[in-house]
Each structure stands twice: as structure tokens, then as C-alpha cells.
């Protein structure tokens, strides 16, 4: 393992990289830690040439840049290696020539958060834990439950706290995977606070990505894949939907790692997109003032986080990359869900397509150049939330089993010639 130490992003204090060390003892719960690597040593073993012959297309192909003991057993689910598509038709529709979609909804449990949960499970084993817990609006929960279930060698259990608004499909996933599911009567913040109290009281391993510094390291692998899949040509911009802020923070860390290793020649500018009904980080970015708690008024449940737990890493990622943030309405999100599907065949959940909705808005407002290259990460699969997908797509046409009526309908749709 090529980790040097952990470092507090607030006071700079350093700590040994043990699985139990999650926050800064000086700064308290807000003392978020960062994993610091020995890049000079990593350069000796981690090269483009070695990756080119590596047959493992999961996140474990990036082992030298991951904070885990390579000898510890890992979940058997294949996390990572999701496709990236050159979305020519979609790009043309919004006036962008070089547009790529990274479909992370094709991870094993249907979201990018599998990347973080696979690391969480390994760290829990390293820590000797029997129960690993988290709060979640759905995707982090299902990814943790699925990865725990796939760990054959250890008797590890997942305990999940979800707000009552969590979609039924995501709850079903948790129960199928055998997790202990606790539905909290209240908001995501209520679920988070109860999970934090339980983790503290019972000594469970903490999978909450905004607290546990190791989980951002799993999320950063999406940036590794983007650059490798684009033949090490980093895009001008990378676009992410934002809730707690962990995913965009992880992406920046991944691009930063590759830049430090000399594997890419620039760090992409990052665009963070929030739903306007729940946008504490966008407001902080626009005003330059500390973030403030907001309501969670959006149908994009995976990013409905009114009290983000990792705001500074997210805001630092946008600022250091010279990027920007933008809000979009729920109506824009639903519209883009069908827009992407009909132009690419990619089915993203509302939070998963929020990033693209923000990109389109910025292009329409001429705040970014259509001549630049863009990668939009679709963070979750549309099958996670069928209720909103039906709302976005509408209802099918219904007719009686009558060929003449079908003929008339097809003529109205222009599918056959009118006589």
C-alpha cells in the first residue's frame, strides 16, 4: 500500500492511515481527512503500459492508488469498468461537438456508489468489524448491501438507515441483499444523525462517505477510467450531479492523482449540478459564504441532501479546477431523462441525469464553449426510480385489439402512409 498518511483538510494535522481513523481528533466531526499518497513510489509500478496489459477491468486494476491492503479479500462483484460513449447525436442536439457519457448506472447495484462501497467493505474487514452501517437516500445503501452480500469469506452484516422518502425500488434492493433496513420517519439529515449515533454507540464501521475518507478514494476511480478510456486525453470539462459532494470531490482527487503522476496533461474543469430545490453547495459557491442548510425539495432523491457532510472537499474541487456550479429545476431534470434516453439509449435516474441538465443549461446560456470537450457521468440507473421515469416519459398508447384501429393509429404517428 502506497499511502503515506491521512491529513486534515482544515488544520493540516497528520494521522497514520489506519482503518479506524476517520476524522481529525482536533477538529472533531467536521475535520474531514484526505488520503496522501507517495507518488514517487507509485510511479515505479503504475504505468500506462502496465495498465494496457492488465486483464482486470474492475477498480482493482488501480490498486497502487487505493488505500487498502492488497492481501485482504475483496467483494466478488465486479465494480467499475463501466462504458463511456461518444454521444455524437446527443451532443449535436445541444450544440456540443465532443460529448461523452460515462454510464455508471451499469455498476453491479446500479450506481457509481458501488465504487465507494467496495472500498468500505474492505476497510471494514481490515478493521475487524462485524457490522458496517450508513445512512442513505438509496444508492449508497444498496451498493453497501450488495457488496456486503458478495463478500463470501467473512460474516459481515449491513445496517442501513434511510429516510421515509427513499424510492420503493431502492428499498427492495436492500431487502433482497439481506440488509437490516431502518426507515427513519423524517429527512435524510434525520437518518444521518440516527445512523451516526448508532455507529458511535455500538462501534459499527462507518460507511458514510462524507465522513469516511477512504470512500472518496473509491469514487475517484471513475476519473481514472474516463482518462484511460479516452486514451489519456483528459476532457476539458467533467460534469457531475452533486448531493453530499463526495462524488465530485472524488473525481477531482482522481484527476489530481493522474496529473501528479504525469499520466494526463491537465485536470479537467469540474461542473457541479444541484437541484434548485436542494442546493446548499451551489449557493455557497455563488456567494462565497459558508453553506447553509436548505430544504430537500427535489424528486432527485439521490442528491436531496440539505445538510451536506462533505462540503469543503466538493467546493475545493470546483474552485481548484476553475470549474463552476449551477442549479436546475425538477422539470429540467425530468425532461433530460427522456432527452438522453431518446438520443443515446442510456437510462439514468433523475439524480443520474442532473449533471447533463446542468450542462445543457450552461450551453444554452452561453456560459461555456460548445467547442470544448465534455464528459458527463450518469451516476445512477433509471430502473432505481420507475415512478419518476413514468412521470417523465408519459403513458403508453392504449387501443382495443382491433387491426383497423391500429392501422389508424399508425397513420397518425406517420409510421405507415395515409391513403
UniProtKB/TrEMBL annotation:
Gene3D superfamilies listed in its UniProt record: 3.40.50.1100
Keywords: Amino-acid biosynthesis, Lyase, Pyridoxal phosphate, Threonine biosynthesis
Known cofactor(s): pyridoxal 5'-phosphate
Record field: catalytic activity: O-phospho-L-homoserine + H2O = L-threonine + phosphate
InterPro entries registered for this protein in UniProt: Ser/Thr_Dehydratase, Thr_synthase-like, Thr_Synthase_bac/arc, TrpB-like_PALP, TrpB-like_PALP_sf
Organism placement in taxonomy: Bacteria, Bacillati, Bacillota, Clostridia, Halanaerobiales
GO BP annotations listed: isoleucine biosynthetic process; L-serine catabolic process; L-threonine catabolic process; threonine biosynthetic process
Pathway: Amino-acid biosynthesis; L-threonine biosynthesis; L-threonine from L-aspartate: step 5/5
Protein name, entry field: Threonine synthase
Record flagged with keyword Glycosyltransferase: no
UniProt cross-references to Pfam families, sorted A to Z: PALP (PF00291)
Task performed by this protein: Catalyzes the gamma-elimination of phosphate from L-phosphohomoserine and the beta-addition of water to produce L-threonine.
Protein family (similarity comment): Belongs to the threonine synthase family.
The Tryptophan synthase beta chain-like PALP domain, residue ranges: 77-380
Amino acid at each position: 500500500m502506497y499511502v503515506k498518511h491521512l491529513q486534515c483538510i482544515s488544520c493540516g494535522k497528520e494521522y497514520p492511515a489506519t482503518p479506524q481513523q476517520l476524522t481529525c481528533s482536533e477538529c472533531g466531526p467536521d475535520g474531514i481527512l484526505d488520503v496522501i499518497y507517495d507518488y514517487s513510489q507509485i510511479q515505479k509500478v503504475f504505468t500506462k503500459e502496465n495498465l494496457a496489459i492488465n486483464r482486470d477491468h474492475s477498480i482493482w486494476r488501480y490498486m497502487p492508488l487505493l488505500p487498502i491492503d492488497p492481501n485482504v479479500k475483496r467483494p466478488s462483484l465486479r465494480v467499475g469498468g463501466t462504458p463511456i460513449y461518444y454521444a455524437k447525436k446527443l451532443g449535436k442536439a445541444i450544440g456540443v461537438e465532443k460529448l461523452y457519457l460515462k454510464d455508471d448506472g451499469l455498476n453491479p447495484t446500479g450506481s457509481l456508489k458501488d465504487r465507494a462501497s467496495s472500498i468500505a467493505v474492505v476497510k471494514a474487514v481490515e478493521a475487524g468489524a462485524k457490522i458496517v452501517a450508513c445512512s442513505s437516500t438509496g444508492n449508497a445503501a444498496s451498493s453497501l448491501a450488495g457488496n456486503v452480500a458478495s463478500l463470501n469469506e467473512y460474516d459481515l452484516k449491513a445496517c442501513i438507515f434511510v429516510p421515509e422518502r427513499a424510492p420503493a425500488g431502492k428499498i427492495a434492493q436492500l431487502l433482497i441483499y439481506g440488509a437490516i433496513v431502518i426507515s427513519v420517519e423524517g429527512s435524510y439529515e434525520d437518518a444521518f444523525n440516527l445512523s451516526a449515533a448508532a455507529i458511535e454507540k455500538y462501534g459499527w464501521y462507518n460507511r458514510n462517505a462524507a465522513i469516511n475518507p477512504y470512500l472518496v478514494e473509491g469514487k475517484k476511480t471513475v476519473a481514472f477510467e474516463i482518462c484511460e478510456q479516452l486514451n489519456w486525453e483528459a476532457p476539458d470539462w467533467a460534469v457531475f450531479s452533486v448531493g453530499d459532494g463526495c462524488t465530485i470531490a472524488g473525481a477531482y482527487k482522481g484527476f489530481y492523482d493522474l496529473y501528479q503522476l504525469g499520466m494526463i496533461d491537465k485536470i479537467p474543469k469540474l461542473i457541479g449540478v444541484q437541484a434548485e430545490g436542494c442546493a446548499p453547495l451551489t449557493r455557497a459557491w455563488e456567494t462565497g459564504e459558508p453553506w447553509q442548510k436548505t430544504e430537500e425539495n427535489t424528486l432527485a432523491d439521490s442528491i436531496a441532501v440539505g445538510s451536506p457532510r462533505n462540503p469543503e472537499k466538493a467546493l475545493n474541487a470546483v474552485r481548484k479546477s476553475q470549474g463552476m456550479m449551477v442549479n436546475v429545476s425538477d422539470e429540467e431534470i425530468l425532461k433530460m431523462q427522456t432527452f438522453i434516453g431518446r438520443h443515446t439509449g442510456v437510462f439514468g435516474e433523475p439524480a443520474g441525469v442532473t449533471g447533463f441538465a446542468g450542462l445543457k443549461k450552461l450551453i444554452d446560456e452561453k456560459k461555456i464553449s460548445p467547442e470544448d470537450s465534455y464528459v458527463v457521468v450518469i451516476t445512477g440507473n433509471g430502473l432505481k426510480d420507475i415512478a419518476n421515469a413514468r412521470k417523465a416519459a408519459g403513458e403508453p398508447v392504449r387501443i382495443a385489439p382491433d387491426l383497423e384501429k391500429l392501422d389508424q393509429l399508425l397513420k397518425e404517428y406517420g409510421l405507415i402512409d395515409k391513403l
